[in-house]
C-alpha cells in the first residue's frame, strides 16, 4: 500500500510527523510516496491551535476524501476535536501514539483490527526519531502544567509527561554523531520539563553540554513565564555555553495584568519584565521572541494600549502576533467575544509595531561579527538564531560554521560578508 504523509504545526508536531514516517518504514507492505495522487492511504498530522488552522485541516481532509483515498488523521485534532473528524477518517491516531502509527495502520487496513494501544510509553517515541540533515527537533516532553483559558493544545496534549533525561542525552549524542549541527529543544513548554520527574530543563541541558562532544548548538523552544523563575539561575548558567543558542522565546500574550489573570497565565507584567531584563543583562546578542494575542474576550482598548506600551519597553526582536479565535472546549470560548473588526484593527496596529521593533533591533547588528551555521547556499542561522544572508565564496559548504560581518539589516533578516570559516 502506498502512503502519503502531510504534517502541520509546531516544532513538536514536526517531530511527530518524522516519528510517524519512521514507524511506517518498518512495514515492508507500506511504501511512502511523494504525491497524494500515488497514494492508497493519506496520513495527515494535524494542528488545531487556531480556528483558521482547524478550518484548513478540515479542508485538506475533505480534499483527500474527494480523491477517494483512505484517510488517517493524526495529531492534535483527533484528541481535541474528535467530533469534527470521526466521520471523515478511517483511523484516528493521538499525539502520544505517533510511534505506533505503523502498527495501528497495518492492523486497521491489513488485519482489519480496531483495538487501540493501551499503556503507551512515550519514551518509545524517541526510538523513531532518526537524525537527518543539519537541523533536528528533539521533543523533551508532552503536555504542560498550565491552565490557560484560551488554549486548545492543553486539551490535545494533556498534562505534563517528560521524556527520560538519559534517553534524551543519548538521542542528542546520536544526532551530533550523525552530523546534526542545530538541535531544536522542543515542547509545549520547555520550562516545565522534568517537573514531574524531579529534575529540570537546566539539568538536561548541562548533561548534554558536558557529555555530548562536537560543534553544535541547541535552540531552546518556547517557555512559559510562570515556570521560568524556578529555574532561571541555573538556566542562565547554561546560556554561558557556546552550545546554547542565544535565543529566548517567552510569550507575553498580553501586557495587561487583568487580561493575564483572565487568561490564567499566572504571572504579572512586572514579573515578565523582570525575566526579560535578567536575560538581556546576562546574555549577549539575545534574540528575544514573544507572542501576543489581540482581541481576547476581556481585552478593552485600554488593555490593548497597555500591551503596546509594554512591547515598546521590552523591545522583542520578533513578535508572533495572533488574533484571538475561540477554541472549542476552552473557558475563553464561553465568554462574550470581541467584534472581529476590532480584532483585525488591533492586529494591524500590532503588526506595524512588530515590524518597527524588529527593524530597530536588527540595525544594532550592523558592524558586528556573528557566528553562522550555513543551512543553504548564501544563507544560514546565527548563534542567536537570526537569519543571515551572505556572499557565497569557493570553499564554503552547507554545514560549515562561518564568521559573518553584518553590513545591512532588514525587518526580518541580516546581510553580511563572510570573514572566515570558524569550524
From TrEMBL:
Coiled-coil residue windows: none
Instruction: Describe how the cofactor binds.
Output: Binds 1 or 2 [4Fe-4S] cluster. One cluster is coordinated with 3 cysteines and an exchangeable S-adenosyl-L-methionine.
PANTHER family xref list? RADICAL SAM PROTEINS, THREONYLCARBAMOYLADENOSINE TRNA METHYLTHIOTRANSFERASE
Q: Which PROSITE patterns match?
A: MTTASE_N, MTTASE_RADICAL, RADICAL_SAM, TRAM
Q: List the Gene Ontology MF annotations in alphabetical order.
A: 4 iron, 4 sulfur cluster binding; metal ion binding; tRNA (N(6)-L-threonylcarbamoyladenosine(37)-C(2))-methylthiotransferase activity
Q: Which organism is it from?
A: Methanofervidicoccus abyssi
Q: What is this protein called?
A: tRNA-t(6)A37 methylthiotransferase
- TM ranges are none
What does the record give as EC number?
Answer: 2.8.4.5
Lineage of the species this protein comes from:
Archaea, Methanobacteriati, Methanobacteriota, Methanomada group, Methanococci
Reply yes or no: does the keyword Lipid biosynthesis apply. Answer: no
Family, similarity comment: Belongs to the methylthiotransferase family. CDKAL1 subfamily.
Catalytic activity as recorded in UniProt: N(6)-L-threonylcarbamoyladenosine(37) in tRNA + (sulfur carrier)-SH + AH2 + 2 S-adenosyl-L-methionine = 2-methylsulfanyl-N(6)-L-threonylcarbamoyladenosine(37) in tRNA + (sulfur carrier)-H + 5'-deoxyadenosine + L-methionine + A + S-adenosyl-L-homocysteine + 2 H(+)
Q: Which cofactor does it need?
A: [4Fe-4S] cluster
Against Pfam families, the record matches this protein to: Radical_SAM, TRAM, UPF0004
Known SMART domains for this protein?
Elp3
Keywords from the UniProt entry = 4Fe-4S, Iron, Iron-sulfur, Metal-binding, S-adenosyl-L-methionine, Transferase, tRNA processing
Domain named TRAM: which ranges? Answer: 363-420
All residue ranges annotated as the Radical SAM core domain in the record:
130-360
Q: Which SUPFAM superfamilies match?
A: Radical SAM enzymes
Q: What does this protein do?
A: Catalyzes the methylthiolation of N6-threonylcarbamoyladenosine (t(6)A), leading to the formation of 2-methylthio-N6-threonylcarbamoyladenosine (ms(2)t(6)A) at position 37 in tRNAs that read codons beginning with adenine.
Q: Enumerate the InterPro entries for this protein.
A: Elp3/MiaA/NifB-like_rSAM, Methylthiotransferase, Methylthiotransferase_CS, Methylthiotransferase_N, Methylthiotransferase_N_sf, MiaB-like_arc_euk, rSAM, rSAM_horseshoe
Entry superkingdom: Archaea
